[in-house]
Amino acid sequence: MITINEHYLKLQASYLFSDIAKRVTSFQEKNPDRNIIRLGIGDVTKGLPAACVEAFHKAVDEMAQDGTFRGYGPEQGYGFLREAIAANDFQSRGADIAADEIFVSDGAKCDTGNFQELFSTATKVAIPDPVYPVYLDTNVMAGRTGKYENGRYGGIVYLDSNRENNFVPELPKEPVDLIYLCFPNNPTGSTISKDQLKQWVDYAREHKSLILFDAAYEAFIRDESLPKSIYEIDGAREVAIEFRSFSKNAGFTGTRCAYTVVPKECRAYDSQGKEHDLHFLWNRRHCTKFNGVSYPVQRAAEAVYSEEGKKQVQALAAYYMRNADLIRKEIESLGYSYVGGENCPYIWIDGGKDSWQFFDMLLDKAGVVCTPGAGFGTCGQGYIRLSAFNSHENVQEAMERIRSVLG
Ligand code: MLT
């Protein structure tokens, strides 16, 4: 008899963004004439940068000819992309990361979800609340939690992010082994200073724990004093894994390319306390379960680092951040308190009522989709998240409609 992994039964019925998509589809079916503006899921709307498109086309043409065709590539990614990443995203900022510490993949969602596979079920996991649901759900699937009760899973150390701590969680009061951090933050849009991040790195070093640092939104940082990578912090190479993505900076949500940095100094321990090399283990996992990102996509990603590509991705970030500025201005003038939107394309708004009620009200009255904060954790209750990823015209229209409903 085939039996299931019963940890799956602890999960909430559906993944947050699938749940929202279902509600929006059902609303649209009942109201076919309503024009809905989506400021919910952080999905980009602008076309790929011209430099990426050109490189993409060229690589597809290479694939068409026997002489330049490529079959299976290196599972970790082609050297041309890994070298461009190491030089531009890290070495140029004084972060000591080498090309062979980079693992190219098809998305940060998969990487942040998969990395926990390397650790024992006894691992004590600390997860912010609110949080990108993938970190939590994948630990539930792996059996690292108890039951779901009153909005929380037993066994997880929740790191509350709220107005009191300016949406940057405090260090855990009990020892933890695995820590998830995301800055600029999804969903709150908050940022962390170098000094604050140093405290986490020091904590991890002291407790022999590991930080999984999601930096998918670093391209939107405008404040030069903020860290773009955890490796800008001394000592992080020994205790931190970093996840990056081309989805938000270069519009690759549908094209798929991302990468994970696993420095060679990172260690984890077996039940006898013996050290093991995480770079070796992740490489082993990656080569066994993944066959690499397609050659044309990697060439398109490499073009992000060309002179033209750099200008084009900066222009994309500036485009979406102009939307974020507009959303902040409007929300502020409506008298709501919010965080985010300054160095991140998400604005986290205190709606003063149940998040799902607020979601339904905005959809029904304004035809605008937001993300209910409660979907990201109990600390998100009462909040909604607006995403700046849409056309400027749509964001303007959405904010006019929101003003007419809330104003
Ligand atoms: C979000 O809206 O939180 C993100 O777009 C989800 C993701 O990147 O998977």
Automatic annotation (TrEMBL):
<dbReference type="GO" id="GO:0009089">
    <property type="term" value="P:lysine biosynthetic process via diaminopimelate"/>
</dbReference>
<keyword id="KW-0663">Pyridoxal phosphate</keyword>
<keyword id="KW-0032">Aminotransferase</keyword>
<protein>
    <recommendedName>
        <fullName>LL-diaminopimelate aminotransferase</fullName>
        <ecNumber>2.6.1.83</ecNumber>
    </recommendedName>
</protein>
<dbReference type="InterPro" id="IPR015421">
    <property type="entry name" value="PyrdxlP-dep_Trfase_major"/>
</dbReference>
<dbReference type="Pfam" id="PF00155">
    <property type="entry name" value="Aminotran_1_2"/>
</dbReference>
<dbReference type="InterPro" id="IPR004839">
    <property type="entry name" value="Aminotransferase_I/II_large"/>
</dbReference>
<keyword id="KW-0808">Transferase</keyword>
<comment type="pathway">
    <text>Amino-acid biosynthesis; L-lysine biosynthesis via DAP pathway; LL-2,6-diaminopimelate from (S)-tetrahydrodipicolinate (aminotransferase route): step 1/1.</text>
</comment>
<dbReference type="InterPro" id="IPR015424">
    <property type="entry name" value="PyrdxlP-dep_Trfase"/>
</dbReference>
<dbReference type="GO" id="GO:0010285">
    <property type="term" value="F:L,L-diaminopimelate aminotransferase activity"/>
</dbReference>
<feature type="domain" description="Aminotransferase class I/classII large">
    <location>
        <begin position="35"/>
        <end position="402"/>
    </location>
</feature>
<dbReference type="InterPro" id="IPR015422">
    <property type="entry name" value="PyrdxlP-dep_Trfase_small"/>
</dbReference>
<dbReference type="InterPro" id="IPR019942">
    <property type="entry name" value="DapL/ALD1"/>
</dbReference>
<dbReference type="GO" id="GO:0030170">
    <property type="term" value="F:pyridoxal phosphate binding"/>
</dbReference>
